[in-house]
Amino acid sequence: MYINKVQYMQKTAIASPIHFEEVFSTKKGSIYQSDSEYCWYVDFAGKLARFDYRNLLKLQKAVYAIDIEHILLTSDKSADVEIIFICACDHCYVLSLIEIIALKELLQGAFVMLELNHIIQDRLFRLAA
Amino acid sequence: MKDIMRVKSLISSDIETLLNQQIKKEALSSSIYLSMASWCGRNGYDNSADYFFKQAEEERMHQLKFYKYVLDMGGMAISPEVTNIKLEYNSFREVFEEALEQEISVTQSIKNIAARCHKEHDYVTLEFLNWFFKEQREEEFKARRAVELFDVIGEEGTGRWQIDKHVGQIVYTEG
């Protein structure tokens, strides 16, 4: 009975795998898209976090809003970390300045790729005669 | 790979941000007009107070129109926080001069959104904005004519009483 249950679980696990497609990756992390779940998985700072459409945009906004130059030039004694907390999202990042730069690079690349994908979809399927 | 960004929303995140800024601007306008209505009311300019009450309602309606559009297109409409509304004005004329400035700033801001729409080829939002451009023609006309009343009638003697009487009668007819 126990074995059957495990087999059943294995079967169902195999029957509905989540397909990821890599959107963009750098040496520091990657962003994958899941078409079936309509979401993205951000592999960064040692964790894989799931972001839906709205939260990915919030993450982008939060990261882009950080004034990296200001943090670099400031000479006060505050800690060199930023907390990226997104409202209504399960994840939170506590990142050093180097990591913020890396995450920004990752997001910028991913959004360029998503834009490129949009153009390709337009050209191949939506505008094709 | 699915184009999820486009599937989820018709408008880009940049346009969404601009439209949310506009929502805030319209809300601010509405509050400013309400404050102007209060000033006019407590200084004895009843017709002008009515005029500004009406303007406040119109701006609120514009705000909701933008708000609904953002939502309907799959965006996130943000209910704005409105603070720092001026309570006192130095003169009757200053109220109308500031009302005109407010309308000009709204027109300019909508023009700015349209410029961005052109850049992104977002003709859907551009078409939506057309209604507002037409509306702004009327709004600016009315605000400008109201300021001009101060020169045409003059503020001496019963001038301000006359101006207050005529403010509500300004009508824009498309020629």
TrEMBL record, chain B:
**Keyword annotations for this protein?**
Cytoplasm, Iron, Iron storage, Metal-binding, Oxidoreductase
Ferritin-like diiron domain mapped to chain residues? 9-154
Q: Which leading EC class covers this enzyme?
A: oxidoreductase
Describe the reaction catalysed, as an equation: 4 Fe(2+) + O2 + 6 H2O = 4 iron(III) oxide-hydroxide + 12 H(+)
What compartments host this protein?
A: Cytoplasm
Q: Name one Pfam family in it.
A: Ferritin
Q: Which InterPro entries match?
A: Ferritin (IPR001519), Ferritin-like (IPR012347), Ferritin-like_diiron (IPR009040), Ferritin-like_SF (IPR009078), Ferritin_DPS_dom (IPR008331), Ferritin_prok (IPR041719)
In which broad location class does this protein mainly occur, judging by the first location in its UniProt entry? cytoplasm
Give the enzyme's EC designation: 1.16.3.2
**Could you tell me which SUPFAM superfamilies the record lists for this protein?**
Ferritin-like
Q: Which family does it belong to?
A: Belongs to the ferritin family. Prokaryotic subfamily.
Protein task = Iron-storage protein.
This chain's protein is named Ferritin
Give the species. Pedobacter gandavensis
